[in-house]
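Duplicate of #3305? Posting structure anyway:
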């Protein structure tokens, strides 16, 4: 799991795991990461985590957001990036596959000589000969079911009737600066997540919240003034 290291003037203040798909940063108490400093806007920035990727967006803050010394509006976070908010720093750390494999290896049980059973005392019961230890092969995860390819059909507007096949793992939809959402393809289905805009998109007439929402066949999505139908292709 990726995490953020909050620091100021080189002193580490806090470690924040990116355990939610949407984490807000700002001065107001309702933010997931609250930084009580006048240089920080009430709702300063947001980090959206989708699968193994994280995106940082400045929410039109007064003093702006920088990554590695460069001002940004939107930024795809890379391991080691440093987000600068006034005097505060948020370092983004993402575990690499090699680190994950090493962590799994370190969790493997190691049998040391002192842990082996001792032979019985002379004159007592005879110790049973030590049997070779056989390591059972790790269980194989079940193969995920084959997910049908998803697609969108535009129902309203100048592009009505057009079809968009969701061939990518992540597809962005909407109008930047107005309303943006992403649809992600996961092993167990398709999900829509709000990314940008004061108004959240709706599915079947119900407005979404900040969390990812699973899409069902023939769901109607309303986004940036356009209606679209999500469907699964056979």
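Output from current build:
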């Amino acid at each position: 799991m990726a995490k953020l290291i909050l620091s100021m003037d080189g002193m580490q203040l806090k470690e924040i795991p990116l355990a939610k798909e949407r984490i807000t940063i700002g001065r107001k108490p309702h933010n997931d990461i609250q930084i009580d400093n006048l240089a920080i806007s009430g709702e300063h920035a947001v980090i959206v985590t989708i699968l193994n990727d994280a995106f940082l967006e400045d929410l039109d803050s007064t003093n702006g957001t920088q990554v590695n010394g460069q001002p940004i509006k939107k930024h795809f976070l890379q391991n080691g990036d440093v987000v600068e908010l006034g005097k505060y720093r948020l370092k983004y750390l993402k575990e690499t596959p090699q680190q994950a494999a090493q962590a799994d290896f370190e969790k493997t049980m190691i049998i040391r000589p002192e842990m082996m059973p001792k032979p019985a005392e002379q004159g007592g019961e005879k110790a049973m000969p030590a049997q070779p230890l056989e390591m059972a092969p790790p269980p194989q995860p079940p193969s995920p079911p084959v997910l049908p390819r998803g697609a969108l059909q535009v129902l309203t507007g100048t592009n009505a009737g057009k079809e968009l096949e969701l061939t990518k793992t992540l597809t962005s939809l909407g109008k930047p600066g107005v309303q943006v959402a992403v649809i992600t393809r996961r092993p167990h289905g398709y999900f829509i997540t709000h990314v940008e805009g004061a108004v959240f998109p709706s599915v079947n007439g119900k407005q979404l919240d900040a969390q990812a929402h699973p899409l069902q066949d023939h769901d109607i999505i309303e986004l940036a003034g356009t209606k679209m139908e999500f469907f699964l292709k056979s």
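Confirmed duplicate; merging threads. The longest strand covers residues 179-186. Residues 103-111 have pLDDT under 50 and may be disordered.
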